[in-house]
User: What shape does this take?
Amino acid sequence: MVAATPVCRMRRSIARKRGFLLIFRPMAQPDPPAKRLWSIGRLVPVAVIAAGLVLFHLLGLERYLSLDALRAHHAQLAAWTGRDPVAAAAAYIALYTVAVAFSLPGGALLTVIGGFLFGLYLGAAYTIVGATLGAIAVFLAARGAFREVFAAR
Assistant: This one.
């Protein structure tokens, strides 16, 4: 429904008072300016995700997401989790969110680490929260970058 102009509203109210039924046809609205399907600003979130994945591999950070690293830091991680469980949970959720958002390898290992550090139920809950937040980040980046492309189809 097109919003009536003030003059239309005034005529309509006068017509109601006199008992007339008027039919107004809305004026044609001008076409909005055409939007470009691609712009640099829209691709920034996708570029950040791609750059994060490339940097992860270039810096060799995958060596920290391995069973060997877990074996080497087992005592320190368990002690930190026992000493400050809230900070450990927040760090784990943040790490899992980043791993999902940047599509980093090692998601299965991070899930096992969550169970190891927090137990079955809390580890599963923290993993689900981190995975959901990471998936939301990827969804928002893709929607912002490709919305107009898919809407044009």
About this structure: The helical segments are 6-18, 40-58, 67-72, 74-83, 85-101, 107-118, 120-152. The CA atoms of residues 97 and 134 lie 4 Å apart. The two ends are 25 Å apart (CA to CA).
